[in-house]
Write a structure and sequence with these properties.
Layout: E1 2-6, E2 13-17, E3 23-27, H1 32-36, E4 48-49, H2 55-64, H3 83-92, E5 101-102, H4 103-109, H5 116-125, E6 137-138, H6 151-165, H7 171-178
């Protein structure tokens, strides 16, 4: 497994990926060991530093340079023992930039409208931030809720995406308009 840190306006983004460009973990920290702790034990391996992760690094740079779909095709790998969690992570990848949803809306998108806590748990256990965009999930009242990497990072990501989609509404207004 390779580790690389990319400077972003939201702070340093460290990514752990295999030689084939599959992302196992990503987060807005420089501490590789902290990030490796987010990877399921069955998927962990020694990490070697690498300045550039090829297509993964290129996709992040493209995202930062205004191509909000650049991360969509980057393969990710997370492990869970529950089928819902894996499905929820895949569902998160379908939430469009500039179109945040609430935890309730996320649970509905995942096909389990009553599983709001499970949907929130999927966000909390997501090891590949940015690539599986849990930052696009908000509280029912449109508030930010939490984010492992800090609310300033979540705010920057939402503002970046909202600005590039041309939507000037606040996340709360967007959620109210979408009715989710």
């Amino acid at each position: 497994m390779y580790g690389s840190t990319i400077g972003t306006p939201a702070g340093p983004l460290t990514i752990l990926a295999d030689p084939d460009g599959v992302v196992y973990a990503a987060g807005f920290r420089t501490d590789v060991e902290e990030l490796l702790g987010r990877v399921h034990p069955r998927l962990r391996g020694p990490v070697r530093a690498r300045g550039d992760l090829g297509p993964v690094t290129a996709a992040v740079r493209s995202y930062l340079d205004c191509d909000l779909t650049a991360l969509d095709e980057v393969p990710v790998r997370q492990h869970t023992d529950g089928a819902f969690m894996a499905h929820a992570w895949q569902t998160l990848r379908q939430v469009k930039p500039g179109g945040p949803v609430t935890y309730t809306g996320f649970a509905e998108l995942a096909g389990r409208p009553r599983a709001v806590r499970a949907a929130a748990a999927a966000c909390a256990r997501n090891a590949v931030a940015l690539f599986v965009p849990c930052h696009r999930v908000l509280r029912t009242d449109g508030g930010l809720g939490g984010y492992r990497w800090g609310l300033p990072v979540k705010t920057w990501l939402l503002d970046h995406e909202r600005g590039l989609t041309g939507d000037t509404r606040s996340p709360r207004s967007m959620v109210e308009a979408a009715g989710r």
